[in-house]
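User: Good morning. I'm curious how zinc ion would be positioned relative to this chain. Could you predict the structure with it bound?
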Amino acid sequence: MDNIERLKAMAQRAVDSRREWLISASTTVLNRPESGFREVETSRLVSDRFSELRIPHQKGIAITGLKGRLEGTYPGPTVAILCELDALPAPGHPHADPDTGVAHACGHHTQVGVLLGAAVALTNSDVLCELSGNIVLMAVPAEEFVNIEDRWNLYQEGKIGLFSGKQEFIRLGAFDDSDIAIMSHTFASSSDGKFALGGTSNAHVGKYVRFEGKASHAGSAPHYGVNALQAAMVGLNALNSQRETLREQDVIRMHGILIAGGTSVNAVPDDVRYEGRVRARTFEAIQETSEKMDRCLRAGALALGAAVRIVTVPGYMPIINNPLLMETFKQNAIQLVRENGVVHYSDVRNEGGSTDMGDLSQIIPSIHPYTGGATGTGHGNDYLIMDYDQAVIKPAKAIAMSVIDLLSEGAAGATEIITNNSPPMTKETYLAFQQGRLTDHLYDCRTGI
Ligand SMILES: [Zn+2]
Ligand SMILES: [Zn+2]
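Assistant: Good morning! Here's the predicted structure, ligand included:
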């Protein structure tokens, strides 16, 4: 057995020795789901587990994020391993918090176990002493791009500067010392193998929209009111009439929810709020579709004589899975689940979803492979982890083994990836681009109010 294989075998044994500890960390988080930038208990759990492993770490990055650090014996590049801390609103999910209605309907609780598992493997002193470079362990809040009203309030209070966890980690400089980034995410598929690699994702922007009308008695004086709900409905119908103009190759999604629809059935609604999303494969398609959405929403305000305030917040970027890094992960995944257990999609495969790992991938070489173990539909009430070995233990091993490939033998593997990567953006151009996408416009058609 060569040296690298010996280190990988040690790493796997270390993960196996903590199997129950890792799975219990994930199921504890499953049973205490928290929404983005509010993951207080989840963050505390990760901090406690890091302390148990004697991993020095910073807390409170982007409110609830953490960053642990492991230093190899020799100098070299730094590899970031990430997990996402947040759950999302899914009140019908069997593991939903009865008070907040949020649930781990995207399986992020498994990522906590994966991060800790990779940490267990790499803190093993026999492994770490052979590595050239460092590992940073990033527990990142708020991947689900939801509750935009809440985040807009946090933004206005100066508590965040961008609207998701990885965006904030980038902005705050938490990734400044990272050269490469790796994470894994669960997916539900019985036919597509145990790991799925490759593909890309949609970019997006978020919309926080507030229609303002005039309240009045809905029975005796509707003629004195301005109905903000009707304004929103005209706007959303107009939006639907745009759908035939969308090109299939742009993979556009226009979707949203009413988050406030009025307060009293016997009063004309004067405050109606909509949270919307425009996704597409390219920024050009997003810009064009975002303008269509704004036009339609304004049409609703115009028709009813209401006002509409549209805040557009910078969303995510398409993911670029680094091919060399993916190949490294793939070979390790094959060792764990054999060749037919690994599906590798083409670089352009885009199922329409989005992730802020896309943002990081625009700046440093990154991968976002998927691991099985889940059943049901992502974000659905039936999305459940049925196989914690595949959802936690195997990806933890695959990530640790990949880091060993990257940082052993003088970090030749990592150096090759870094040298051959030409990222589309720097941190500075990324932040300028994202901050330039934030707009706040009021379109006021009210008269005499
Ligand atoms: Zn999700
Ligand atoms: Zn997710």
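The chain has two domains: 3-201+318-407, 204-315+437-444. Residues 106, 108, 143, 185 surround zinc ion (ligand 2) (CB under 6 Å).
Let me know if you'd like a different ligand tried.
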